Sequence to fold (262 residues):
Amino acid sequence: MALPSTGAQHYTLLLLPGLLSEIERLGLRKVIARSSLTAADISGLYFEAKTITRLLPDDLDAIDADLWPDLVECARILAMLVREVTREDLARTKRQAINQFLPRARHQVRDEVRRQLGEGNVDFRLAGMTRPPTGDDQAEETCIEAIRLERQRRYQTMMGLDTEFLGSHQAAIVEEARAYVSRQMDDPPEDFGALDLLIHLGDVLRVLLKAEQEGVTDEGTAPPGHISVGNVVMGIGNLLYADELGLRGARVTRQATQEACV
Fold:
């Protein structure tokens, strides 16, 4: 296995303790019950990973290059174990997020249609999105379109994001995200999905950092408690490095579990 990119290494060092914490939150028994692996395999991997993570240095240069394949494999398997437990929860959360965002999304699209009408032009696809929803597909498309309309507005704020108050691994991930977004904006892709989401997360991160620096505690203006700087940075890292690290879609096998983190 080739050595992960520098950004992916930073992400892995944040991901491992995050996955272990998630397994603790879910409960090891629940993870074992939902998995096709044996209790011994999962328990062995879990405690090996905890030990290794605790001993890992924070400096990338201090980590032996030969260790990275094992660290990545360990992270990959832990991520799959978590995904097996949370798959239904993620689908439900996505549906809830779309329902919460849909009214604002439709309003933003409607404003854009009105602006185009004022200029004597209109995108009939956008106009169709302002009508009452006919199904989940249209609702999701409307939300995505609203995010795209905000792309230019949020892009500049992401480029000016101050990473001074982030940890070293977090700052490295955000800097690479900004470089990626800048390249994509200069040479737009056919599918803006990942780019839009990165820009959106960058804007959320800006709001969170500002709230932390200003000590915002008022319930009306403070970010929701379940959204944190760490969570947003990990979301950015997942978009950037999940494919490189093989974190999407692969199956957990007993052999891979026994070989990981050894």
Observations:
- The mean pLDDT is 78.
- The chain is about 70% helix and 0% strand.
- Residues 104 and 261 are 46 Å apart (CA to CA).
- Residues 6-95 form one domain.
